[in-house]
Amino acid sequence: MFDRYEAGEQAVLVHINFSDENSREDLHELQMLVSSAGVTTVDVVTGSRQTPHPKYFVGSGKAEEIANAVRTSEAQVVIFNHALSPSQERNLEQLCKCKVIDRTGLILDIFAQRARTHEGKLQVELAQLRHISTRLIRGWTHLERQKGGIGLRGPGETQLETDRRLLRERIKSILRRLGKVQKQREQGRRARNRAEIPTLALVGYTNAGKSTLFNTITQAHVYAADQLFATLDPTLRKISLKDVGTAILADTVGFIRHLPHDLVAAFKATLQETQEADILLHVVDYSDEQHEDNIRQVDEVLAEIDADEIPQLMICNKIDRMEGIEPKIDRDDEGRPCRVWISAQQGIGLDLLFDALTECLAQTMVQFQLRIPPKAGKLRGDLFHLDCISDESYADDGDWLVSIRMPSNDWQRLVKKYDGHLNDYVVNKH
């Protein structure tokens, strides 16, 4: 059997430019991914092709160049900035005499390092198993025979069939456990919906500054670093907004171009926080020259998980790295906030962000002035319980004059509770 080398700390990177725009990857992003995985780059091999070669992905001459780079630098692993087929990986490993992984394998390795919660670890394992299941034959060519021996000769499972069966059983087990976690998440979401607490989800390209913004707003201590996929597990915190009340802010995993489909499927429960949000806060690193492309990639993933119809507020982050940009709110043709320019790390423009969030959520609020007689003391208690009173006084006849502001859903529930009599107390509407 071919000796499978363990991944080491020194890597040769391979980046190929294709004429097809959809097949192109970013070399700088690969270098950031490799750095995030804790691997040192010792050499970079680049080239150009029209289409991938069926045997080595690259041409045979380029494959020899990669093998020579491995021998010269004594690298332990070759990392391709592209998706390789199982046979291409096997052929390259035999030529280079070291481990070869593709872009998907690299992202999976980073996710495995970052997973902190039980759910995150299960999701990573599920994605890894689905990825490995197509590559089982690589290491088991010497076991393609049936099990045998004295007393055991004859028909039976090959070693490969046994491994595939064990993989299928493990995947089923993980899916069952993830199903339980998903039910727990749904219960939490239903409770928030019953309480009519709005949910805001931070989305954006990886390393756009979502976790830094999350920590600044909520005073949480979520791991944040200048590296790709620093956040893997979703985190939720309560925040308080003026004139709106309590809202839930969710920090989610960052997106990346050509995110492997196995990862999208495996992280369905995590991404569901995005699907269920009232507003998506799309954080963009505007100091990145490729921010327009990154915005497009995020929108594609949002469409893939059916979250593209949810209202978005774009957060233009890292303005401290740009010259001549001041914190501000941009508005659309109807006067609603559409972009907020801030620096999460420096805390610049956060007051404008809160104003924009309040304005976006306040569109679902109602304002009334009520005149409540002494006999309606129960209603007064309900209003205090909802914490919706902005001003109060007493009339000469003892009636209570009160100005209220609350979500329209809360108001409709109160009207229903008092059989429509609540409208008799309304003095005027704002």
UniProtKB/TrEMBL annotation:
GO molecular function per UniProt: GTP binding; GTPase activity; guanosine tetraphosphate binding; metal ion binding; ribosome binding
Keywords: Cytoplasm, GTP-binding, Magnesium, Metal-binding, Nucleotide-binding
One Pfam family recorded for the sequence: GTP-bdg_M
GO cellular component terms listed in the entry, alphabetical order: cytoplasm
Cofactor(s) listed: Mg(2+)
Chief location: cytoplasm
Residues the record lists as binding GTP: 204-211, 229-233, 251-254, 317-320, 343-345
Residues that hold Mg(2+) according to the record: 211, 231
Domain named Hflx-type G: residues: 198-365
Locations listed in the record: Cytoplasm
SUPFAM superfamilies assigned: EF-G C-terminal domain-like, P-loop containing nucleoside triphosphate hydrolases
Matches recorded under NCBIfam families: GTP_HflX (TIGR03156), PRK11058.1 (NF008280)
Record's function text: GTPase that associates with the 50S ribosomal subunit and may have a role during protein synthesis or ribosome biogenesis.
Matching HAMAP family: GTPase_HflX
Quaternary structure (record): Monomer. Associates with the 50S ribosomal subunit.
Annotated family: Belongs to the TRAFAC class OBG-HflX-like GTPase superfamily. HflX GTPase family.
Protein name per UniProt: GTPase HflX
